[in-house]
Design the sequence.
């Protein structure tokens, strides 16, 4: 039913595609968890810092906007992942670029979090690691047939 076998049967997704799918969902969940923990749980919280800087009302508005933008991004990410799962090559490319970008983001100072130790940076690194891990199975030889060029439907 889930199409997790790599038997080559028509309509059955290779296990590499299913692995990438589940890693992508885990990366999305980790991204959302990272935002919630950073905004409300791990000190100093985003809410606390924004409240001290701009007041409670402005802090609530800014966090609502930030959360809304995150949800739009996650919805787009899910849409691309669904297209990847359906065998669209462009979606594989987008997820591959996102995976490589995640490693670049994590390995450089683009994340601007420095080299702090503790739970906060560890949690913050998880979405990037999962995003990169999700891209790997998409480019394995066994997954290639899933992304064969298909004629466009009109």
Sequence:
């Amino acid at each position: 039913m889930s199409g997790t076998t790599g038997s080559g049967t028509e309509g059955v997704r290779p296990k590499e595609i299913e692995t990438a799918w589940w890693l992508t969902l885990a990366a999305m969940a980790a991204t959302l968890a990272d935002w919630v923990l950073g905004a409300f749980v791990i000190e100093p919280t985003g809410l606390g810092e924004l409240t001290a800087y701009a007041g409670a009302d402005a802090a609530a508005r800014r966090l609502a906007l930030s959360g809304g933008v995150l949800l739009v991004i996650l919805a787009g990410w899910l849409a691309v992942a669904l297209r990847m799962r359906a065998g669209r090559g462009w979606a594989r490319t987008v997820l591959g670029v996102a995976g490589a970008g995640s490693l670049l983001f994590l390995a450089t100072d683009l994340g601007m979090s420095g080299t702090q130790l503790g739970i906060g940076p560890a949690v913050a690194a998880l979405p990037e690691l999962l995003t990169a891990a999700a891209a790997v199975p998409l480019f394995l030889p066994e997954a290639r047939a899933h992304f064969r060029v298909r004629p466009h439907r009109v």
Q: What stands out?
A: Confidence is low (pLDDT under 50) at residues 1-9.
